[in-house]
Amino acid sequence: MSGDHIQQYGAGSIGKAEHTGSGDIVAGGKNVGVAEAGPALQALLAEIERLRPHLDAADRAEVDAAAGAIAEETSAERRRTLVQRISGIAALVGEVGLPVVAAGKALLSG
């Protein structure tokens, strides 16, 4: 924004933080917050898609809501909660849900 006047003092000052609406936050000229999940996130979403036909309507809605939020989540704690919600439902489905659980673990460990 033109006309902004920013003064910063002390170690660790980042200056102006900007959000462009695409899931990124730029602070002091560096991207912070959202880490690129990349292949691990894509693998989880692909496994969720394979699981969907095995879910009832309520579980499918819950998994879809969590999957929709997980890609844009900036908080590691919140992302973990979403993966746990998805993995819990997948585990209850049985063996067909195990790839989702494994993909969720890979996402959190990466």
Task: Provide a brief overview of the structure.
By secondary structure, the protein is mainly alpha-helical. Helix content is 52%, strand content 8%. It has helices spanning 39-51, 57-70, 76-93, 98-109; strands at 17-19, 25-27, 30-32.
| Overall mean confidence score, pLDDT | 79
Number of strands: 3
Give the fraction of residues assigned to helices.
40-55%
Shape: elongated
What secondary-structure arrangement, pairings included, does this model have?
Blueprint: E1 17-19, E2 25-27, E3 30-32, H1 39-51, H2 57-70, H3 76-93, H4 98-109
Antiparallel strand pairs: 1-2, 2-3
Helix pairs in contact: 1-4, 2-3, 3-4
Detailed description of the structure:
This protein is mostly helical and 110 residues long. The protein starts with 16 loop residues before the first strand and ends with a helix. It has a three-stranded antiparallel sheet with strand order 1-2-3, with no helix packed on it. The radius of gyration is 18 Å and the shape is elongated. The model is unreliable at 21-35 (pLDDT under 50). The chain has four helices and three strands, in the order βββαααα. It has helices at 39-51, 57-70, 76-93, 98-109, and strands at residues 17-19, 25-27, 30-32.
